[in-house]
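Whether sequence alone determines local backbone shape is best considered at the level of individual chains. In the encoding step, the backbone of a single protein was reduced to a row of integers, each denoting a local shape. For completeness, the protein is quoted in full, as a sequence line and a line of structure tokens.
***
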Amino acid sequence: MKQRICKLCNKSFTTIELKNHILDVHKISFDIYLRKYFYDKEVGFCLNCGKKTKVSLYKYSKYCNNKCQLEYQYKNETEEDKKLRKEKLSKSWTKEKKEKQSKKHIKINEKLDNDYYKNRYLKIKKTLKEKYGNENAFQFNSVQFKENMKKLYGKENYFELSDKRKEYEFKKINNFKKNIKKNQNWILAHKNKNINLKQSMNRSV
């Protein structure tokens, strides 16, 4: 497990141990520790408005939202930065690109208008009615549906087929066993973690 050094006393801990150590020994919250000490400078406050930002053991945010980020960058950019920004914008969204995008959307709208979706829906209903005797895909209990099942499998109900039923039950039991094993492994892992944590805390005391 990765060890982390406490910036206040230079002792080594795992992440969970460090959180408990900061709270119990140094009597400050882990959030304050991250903002004031962990990065060797005060972090976790928006450079634009001063509000709290997200802070973790891996990174911290300089701004509380995109609006503050843009405001701060625009306020503090030099004339050269401003010029470069405008050049990038002009290259990324040219008149030719706008026209090309507009033509593309016109073609899509022409194809996918209301009639297109309406006709597609009617075609699906027609196919279901012809094949299974029911327009609703979730109500396959019609006479025609049962007849088709009998032609294909010799039984009206899919689960009356012994092989298919066994296959279904076998998969269900296997999935159930896998889930039990996962839960057991998770419980065992967390149990061992708690034991190790208690042992390390007793040693430090």
Summary: Residues 162-204 form the longest helix (43 residues).
